[in-house]
Amino acid sequence: MNRASLRAAFFAALSILVAGGLVVGLLPNYWVYLITAVFILGIALQSLGIVTGRTGMISLCQMSFAGVGAWTVGYLNFIDFPGGLPLWLLLGGLAALPFGIIIGLPALRLRGINLAIVTLGFASAFDVVLATITYPGQTNFKMVARPAGMEGDVGYFMFVIMIYALIAVVLEFLNRSRLGASWLAVRHSERAAAAHGVSIPTTKLSAFAISAFIAGVAGGLFAGYLGTLVAENFSMMQSLTLFAVATMAGSQFTLGAIIGGVLVSLFPELLRRLNVPQDFGSVIFAAGAVQALSTGESISETFMRLGGKIVPKGLFKRAKAKTHKLPAAKTFAKDVPALQVQDVTVRYGNVVASNKVNLTVPHGKVVGLIGPNGAGKSTLVDAITGFLPDYEGDIRLGDKSLNGVSVTERARLGVRRTWQTTRIAPELQVGEYMRLAAGSDLSDDEVEAVLDWFNCPPANTPIASIDAGTRRLLDVAGIVAARPPVILLDEPAAGQSYAEAVRLGERIRQIPETFGSSVLLIEHDMDLVRSACEEVTVLDFGTVIAHGAPANVLETPIVQKAYLGVDHELEASA
Amino acid sequence: MNALELNKVHIKRGDIPIVHGVDIVAKPGEISVLLGANGAGKTTILEGTSGVIPIASGDIVLEGAQMCKASAGHRARSGIAHVEQGRTIFAEMSTEDNLRVGLHPESGLEQAYDLFPELKTRANVKSAMLSGGEQQMLVIARALLGKPKVVLIDEMSAGLAPVVVARLMQAVRLLADQGLAVLLVEQFANLALDIGDRAYVLRRGEVVYDGSCEILRNDPAMLHHLYLGDMEKDSA
Amino acid sequence: MNSLLTPAMAGLSAGGAYAILGVCAIFTYRLVAVVNFTGAAVGACGAFIMVALVEMGMPLFPAVVLGIAAGALAALFVGFITTIWFSGANGSVKAAVTAALLVGFIALGLRLTGGQHPKRFPDILQGAWLRLADVQITNASIAAIGLAIVLTIAAEQFLNRTRTGLELRALSERPMAAELLGIRVRLLALIVWAIAGAVTAFALMLIAPLRSPDFASLSLLIVPALAAALIGAFKSFRAALFGGLAIGIIEGLASGLVGLNQYRAAIPFIVILLVLLWSQREARWDESR
C-alpha cells in the first residue's frame, strides 16, 4: 500500500464527508432527501465505471445487478432477517456477484461488443422475471427498515454518504493497485496485458464481480431509500440511461460518479421546475454520451484537464537531491542458454512464415535479430511469447520447454517482450505502469532509478502527457525493471532521434550486466544493432541465412543480397 | 509537366515525426524509385500521398491541383492509384470480381488481361487461392483499371521468387512506357534501379540522394553506403 | 397435439420478425461494421409515423410508404453519426454510440407516442391464411415469415449479383483498399443504413398488431434480433433466418406451458448466453486485441 494511494483515499473520504456535512448543514430536508439519491446513484455509477470506464466492456444491465441487491434486501426485510440494513446490503451485494460472473463469462475470450449484447439480454430478461416474481413486501406495503437512529431523511443521508465514502476509498486503493492497472491495460490491449503476465480471464471476471457487488449494494440502498420498490425502478431503460450518463460524466472517477448522480436525480427536477417534459433529460444524456465518445473526453475528464492547467509546471520533476539505487541484478543458471529456438516452423495457411529457425540467446548476452521486411522476425517473436501457439519445433527457456504454455504463463516464467506500437494505457501514471510491468516488489526508489537510467520521466507523470517516443522507452524500462531471464525488444528505436538511438543502444548493451537478463533485439536500425549486440542472426524468407558478430555479418554477400535485392547473376540464371 | 509533386512534405505517425520535409516528383512516362532501409519512411510517404494517413505539412500536387486536404477516395478518383504493400486483395472474391471493384467506365477488363494474361485463366478462381505472384499482379492490374494518372506501388517484390519479381518489374516498365507516372517503393535496390529513371534514397525520413538511377546502378559502393552505412563514421 | 402446435404456430410470426431484424442486424454489421442497438427503434419510428398518418385520415397504402421512408430517415440519422463522427472508431465505440442513442430514441418515442399505452395498429393484413381444426396461421405471420425469407435471399443476391453489392463486399472486407480504388465509402454506408431502416420499419408494421405495440417494447425487439444475428455469427443470413424462427417457436412453445409462460421473454437471453459460450471455444489472439 503506497503513500500516493493513502493520500488519494484520505482526500476522497474527506471531501465526501465535507460535502455531506455542507448538504446537511445548509439545505432544507427536501433537498437532503433528493441529494441522497445523488449518492446512491453515484455508487451505481462507480460500479459501471469499473466495467465500462476502466475495463472497457460495455455493460447495459447495471441496474439489473442493483435490482438483484434490492430484491435481496427486500426479502431479508420481509423475513425479518437479523443484522439490519448494513448486513443486508452486504448480502445484497454478494447475491448480485454471481450474476456478474455469469454475465462476464461469455466475454472472457471475445471482444467487448458481445458483452454489450449479453448484458442487454440480461437486462431484458431480468425485467420479465422481476415483473413476474415482484418485490417482496410490494403487496403488503412492508417498508424496508432503515438502520436504528438513521430512520429520518437526514439520518439516512448520513448512512448513505458513509457507505459512499467507504466504497470510494476502497476503489481508490483498488484503482491504484496492480489489479486496477490491469483493468486499464486489458481495456487498452489484451495482448500487451497478457504479455505482462496479467491473466485476462481473472482481470475481466474480477471487474465484473466487483462491479456487480457494488451495484447490488447500491440497489440495497435504494430499497432503504424508497421503502418499497417496483420493477420499473430497475428496468432496462434505467440501465441504458445509467450507461449513457456514465459515459457522459466519466463515472470511473469519483468526481464523474457524483456529476452523473446529479444529472440523473436532479436534472429531471430542474426540468420539472422549468415545465419541460422530464424524459427530455434522457435525450440530453444520449447526446452528451455521443459527444463524450466522439471527443474521447467525459465531463469529469474535462474538469480535471482544466484543473490540471492550474497545477504549476515542474511538478513532475524528479527530486534531484536523492541518489536512486538500481534494483540488484537477478542471477539465472549460467550453464544453459537463456533462450533456445529449435527447428521452429510457423505456417499461416499455405504460407510458411518461419522455416525451421534455430536461434540461441546465450546467458548474459545481447543478440540481434535482423532481416528485410516480411522475413519472419515478428512471427518469431509471436511464437516465442506464445501468441502463435501452433508452431512446430521447440522453444526452451533455460532447461524448460515452453510448448503448450500460455502467453500469460510464459510472461510469468520470464519471457518478456516490448511492442512496435505503444500499447501502454494512457490513463495510468508512469509509476503505476512500472508496477504493472515489473510487479510490486520494487521500492519507489528503485522504480525512479530504472526510469532515470532510461531517461524516462518520473513516476508521478501521467502517461497521457508524454510523447510516443518516450512511451516506447518506458515500455522497455518496465520490462527491464522486472529483470526476467529473457527480454525480447521489438524495434525499440523506431521514432527515436539518432542521438537517442545511440544512447538507447548503449543502455541495451548494459542490460545483462546490470540487471541479469539476456536480450534478443529485433531492429532495423543498423547503428543501434552495432552498438548494442555481440551477435546477430539474419532472417530472410523465414530462414536463418547468417549468424555471427555484427561487423562480419553485415559484410557478407548473402546479407547484402537480402537487403539490396536479387543480384544480377542470379536474375540472369533464373 | 510533373504528374505528381510532393513539396516539403512532413508526416507523423501518432506524434512521432517520420518524414521530414521531402521533395519528390513523378513524371508521365517515367518511374521514380524510392529506396532506403526499413523504417526510412518510404511506405509512410506513399500513404501520405494517397491519403491513407494525413500529412503534417507540405503540398501534394496532382497535375497542378492541390490534393493534401482531399480524402483518400477523392484522390483515388482524381487519379492517384495506390498499390499497398501486403497484396490487399479482396480474398473472399474471385479474381474477376476483384478487378471489377473500382473499374472505370472507360476501362475494360481486357486491359488487365493484356498486361497479365495469367489472370485471365484464373478469372473465376477465388483470389485467396492465387499464388503470391498472381495476387501481386491482381492488385497492380486492379489499380490500373481506375484510369489513374500516377500509380504508387509499395514493396511489390516482398516474399516473391526472383523470376516473378522480374516479370512484375517488366510490367511496371511497360506501364510507364505507355505514359503513366510511377512512384515505386522497393526494398531491393538493384531490381528497382534496373527499370527506374529517377531515384530517391531515404534515410531516417530525409532524402539523402536525389538523382538518376543510372549513377547509383553503376556505383554499388555508394549504394551500399547509403543503405547499410555507418552514420557514426559519416559524422566522424 | 394441438395444445403444442397452436402456440408453436403463434410463435412463428414473432420468429419471422426476429429473423427480419436479425438479418438487418447482420446486414449493417457486415457492411458498415456497426452492431446497431437502435436497429429496432428506427423501425419503430417508421411504424408509429404510419399509425399517426392513418389516424389523421390518410389511406393505408401511402401511410405505409411514408412510414417506410421515415424508418429509412431515422436509420440515416444514426448512420450519419456513426459514419461522419466515428469513421475511425473501433466497433466497441460505435456500439456504445448506438446504445446511447437508443436511450434518446426510446425517451423521445415514448413522449411522442403517448407513453406505454399501446397504440391501435391497423392490421395491414387481416384474417387467417390457413385454419385446420384449432390451429390457425394468420396472414400476418405468413407475411412475416415470407418477408424474412425474401429478405434473406434478396440480401444474398444483392451482395453477390449487383455492382453496388460488389462494392459493398469490397468495402466490408478491406475498407481502405476499397477507398483507394475510388469507391464512395460514405455514400455506400448511408445506403446500407437507409435500406436497413426501411426494411425494419415495414417489418415492425406487420408484427406490431401481434405484440404490445408501445414504442419501448418494439425498440427492445433488438434483443431477440441480436440473438438471431449471433446464431448467424453476424455473418450468415440463412443461419440468422433459422435462428430467428427457432427463437420464435421456442417462445411460442414456452407460452403454452404453465409455469414457463411468464418467463418466455427471457429465452433470447439464454440463447445469447449459450451461443456466446459456444462460439468462444476457439477464440484466438487476433490483431485487434
Automatic annotation (TrEMBL), chain A:
CDD domains per record: TM_PBP1_LivM_like (cd06581)
Highest taxon of the lineage: Bacteria
Domain ABC transporter: 339-566
Matches recorded under Pfam families: ABC_tran, BPD_transp_2
Positions of transmembrane segments: 30-51, 58-79, 85-108, 115-135, 155-174, 205-228, 240-267
GO CC, alphabetical: plasma membrane
Membrane topology: Multi-pass membrane protein
InterPro entries on file: AAA+_ATPase, ABC_AA/LPS_Transport, ABC_transp_permease, ABC_transporter-like_ATP-bd, LivM-like, P-loop_NTPase
The keyword Nucleotide-binding belongs to this UniProt entry's keyword annotation: yes
UniProt entry keywords in alphabetical sequence: ATP-binding, Cell membrane, Membrane, Nucleotide-binding, Transmembrane, Transmembrane helix, Transport
Compartmental location: Cell membrane
Matches recorded under PANTHER family: ABC TRANSPORTER ATP-BINDING PROTEIN, CONSERVED COMPONENT OF ABC TRANSPORTER FOR NATURAL AMINO ACIDS-RELATED
Record's protein name: Branched-chain amino acid transport system permease protein
Organism placement in taxonomy: Bacteria, Pseudomonadati, Pseudomonadota, Alphaproteobacteria, Hyphomicrobiales
Automatic annotation (TrEMBL), chain B:
SUPFAM superfamilies registered for this protein in UniProt: P-loop containing nucleoside triphosphate hydrolases (SSF52540)
Record-linked SMART domains: AAA (SM00382)
Database matches in Gene3D superfamilies: P-loop containing nucleotide triphosphate hydrolases
Gene Ontology biological-process entries: L-amino acid transport
Family, per entry: Belongs to the ABC transporter superfamily.
Organism in which the protein naturally occurs: Maritalea mobilis
Highest taxon in the source lineage: Bacteria
UniProt keyword terms in alphabetical order: Amino-acid transport, ATP-binding, Nucleotide-binding, Transport
Protein name listed in UniProt: Branched-chain amino acid transport system ATP-binding protein
One protein family per Pfam: ABC_tran
UniProtKB/TrEMBL annotation, chain C:
Source organism, top-level taxon: Bacteria
One GO CC term, this protein: plasma membrane
The entry's keywords: Amino-acid transport, Cell membrane, Membrane, Transmembrane, Transmembrane helix, Transport
BP-aspect Gene Ontology terms: amino acid transport
Transmembrane residue ranges: 29-53, 60-86, 92-110, 187-209, 215-234, 239-257, 263-279
GO molecular function: transmembrane transporter activity
Protein name stated in the entry: Branched-chain amino acid transport system permease protein
Lineage of the species this protein comes from: Bacteria, Pseudomonadati, Pseudomonadota, Alphaproteobacteria, Hyphomicrobiales
InterPro entries reported in the protein's UniProt record: ABC_transp_permease, BCAA_transport_permease
Organism of this sequence: Maritalea mobilis
Bilayer topology annotation: Multi-pass membrane protein
Similarity comment: Belongs to the binding-protein-dependent transport system permease family. LivHM subfamily.
Localization per record: Cell membrane
